[in-house]
Structures are given as structure tokens and as C-alpha cells.
Amino acid sequence: MPAPRPLDEVAARTSFARFRVASIVEGIALLVLVSIMVMRYVVFGGDVAFTTTSDQWTQISKVWSPIHGLIYMVYVVLGFDLWLKMRWGLPRMLLLMFFGVIPVLSFFGERWTHQRVESDLARRPTLQDEARA
């Protein structure tokens, strides 16, 4: 069996840095979205109560929801980029995508992913190992 192709450590770390920022932004954006939904549907009764406050939260929801969707799509693309650079299996990619779906999970997922990137880069051969030798 041939030896696995070495990873590009610089590209992997750069990709992870982008993913890290996206994880934090996605986590905050998701918390904002959940807060808006709670205010809209729980506190002010959603579309049933025709009050000025309810209408404001409905409008805020209509503006923020697509913004959050765009942020999540960027998060997915950057997670996919990291997955490609690290040459992980399909379950790991699905897990990266899942981290951005549940509020607060992206913060923990970022820490978990950081540990996996560091351990994989220490364990697997990299192009930079060959250059150092």
C-alpha cells in the first residue's frame, strides 16, 4: 500500500483559521436568530397578535433570516474547504455542517475541530515535514 499523500500544513492551518472565524460568526448569528424568533413567537405572540411590537419583530425576522442563511452558507463552504484540505472522511464533513445548526454548538464544534486539526497535523505527514528534513 503506498504512503498517503502529505498534507499541506500551511493550507490546512489557513483554512482552519477561516473556518474558526466562520464558526464564531455563525454561532453568534444563530443565537441572534433564535432570540428574534423567541421574541416574535413566544414573547409577542407572532402573527396572531396585531400589535406594533409584534409587527416590528416580524419585520426584523424577515430581514435577519436571509442574512443568517447567507452566513450559514459561507460557514458550510469554509467547512467543506477545511474538510478537503485535511482529507477527512464524509462523516467528519457532515459533523462540521451539523455544528452550525444547533445554537451554541458551533462554539464547541470549533474547539473540537481545532483539536482534530492539530492532532492530524502532528500525526500525518505534511509537505512542511519534507521541507524541514
- In the predicted model, the low-confidence regions spanning at least 5 consecutive residues are none
Helical residues, percent: over 70%
**pLDDT averaged over residues:** 89
User: What is the succession of H and E elements?
Assistant: HHHHH
N-to-C CA distance: 23 Å
Counting DSSP H or I runs of 4 or more residues, the number of helices is: 5
Strand content: under 5%
The count of strands amounts to 0
Q: Quick one: biggest sheet?
A: none
Total separate domains = 1
**Class inferred from helices and paired strands:** mainly alpha
Pfam families: DUF3817
Transmembrane segments: 21-43, 63-84, 93-109
Protein name: DUF3817 domain-containing protein
Domain DUF3817: 17-114
Tell me what you see in this structure.
It is a single chain. The chain is an all-alpha fold and 133 residues long. The protein has one domain (9-132). The chain contains five helices and no strands. The chain has helices at residues 9-43, 52-86, 90-98, 105-123, 127-132. Helix 1 runs antiparallel to helix 4 (105-123) and helix 2 (52-86) runs antiparallel to helix 3 (90-98). The longest helix is centred in the N-terminal third of the chain and has 35 residues, at 9-43. It starts with 8 loop residues before the first helix and ends with a helix. The relative contact order is 0.21.
